[in-house]
Amino acid sequence: MKTDAVLAIVSGFAGSGKGSVMKGLMKKYPEEYFLSVSKTTRDPRPGEENGREYYFVSDKEFEESIEKDMLLEYAGYVGHYYGTPREPVEEALSKGKNVLLEIEIQGALKVKEKFPDAVLLFLSPPSAEELKNRLIGRGTEDAETVKKRLKRASEEAVGIDQYDYLVINDDLEDCIEEVHSILNAERRKTIRQTALVQELIKETGRFSEGE
Amino acid sequence: MKTDAVLAIVSGFAGSGKGSVMKGLMKKYPEEYFLSVSKTTRDPRPGEENGREYYFVSDKEFEESIEKDMLLEYAGYVGHYYGTPREPVEEALSKGKNVLLEIEIQGALKVKEKFPDAVLLFLSPPSAEELKNRLIGRGTEDAETVKKRLKRASEEAVGIDQYDYLVINDDLEDCIEEVHSILNAERRKTIRQTALVQELIKETGRFSEGE
To answer: CB A150 to CB B182 under 8 A?
Structure first.
């Protein structure tokens, strides 16, 4: 990539509010962010729209995307496929937009292999107890799904140290600003400013030759 | 270290304003920062005060500090010794304060060996031309010193990619806020929040055991 744009992978416990944080960034800084929309074979939930929350596709269509190498990563979760379309991500980065990917850890690590400069953020409620309350309190899922989520949370927690940043979502607005601030800081990394570094080396080199 | 405090090493071209940025951080956020004061064997410049800009010591005293392992790093520059006292740095970090070290690249890399989580920031004027103007324009040094500095700048530029962050100092206030923001972001790194990560693992582990 020629720009300093950041590929940001956001994971987090179910109930960590990661979806709201992503939407908040898109709303507050529409020029700076691109939100990747995943493909999935699961059914839409009430209120979800094709192309907004997900591209809802058939198993057959999903498997074609895999075969044609059109996905940055894909994984199965609770019996369904989820995957990240490659082209929109690469296009947004080339335009200098930070890309937001909301995926879980296996996907995050796969993308990190392909984009070593990707930044991995994990979102969490302020405590495990609060997490449990949020998972149960949402009330849109049956007991079996809640149980699966609690188990999933314990599996996810073990992977947190593979993330670069752990961000606590206590207040949504604060959390949006914190993620924004982290990504701004990332843009100052020398690895993202190689053109400027090269220019400084070249120009100061002329000084020492006595100009 | 048990805290999430950051050991921040700030380098930069002479004329990059790194001293003013450090002072600005100390003034605006006195509770959050500790500015390490180096020992040096060079003479004080007009307006400099012992214990504020530097501890001005004799060659003999400096060499004793080396022998007694009281310095985190030390180096020679333009015929004088410069070194970082170890104890105040460790004490400030243990109290949860970010520590600011203003040292050059050799020292920075030596400290990074001892504190792998140290964050290296390099400050630069917005362009090499502006750098040259600032070096010459300060007008407090003779031609020979200016020439040495220009040469030094070209040597320093080659090392920039060993720093974590490159921060442009165009406007002092903006630069202070940018460094502050970078260090706040650093505090969200998972490597600095191991206690919280362990707590989340432990607590969510209890969920999956059916509690």
So the answer is: no
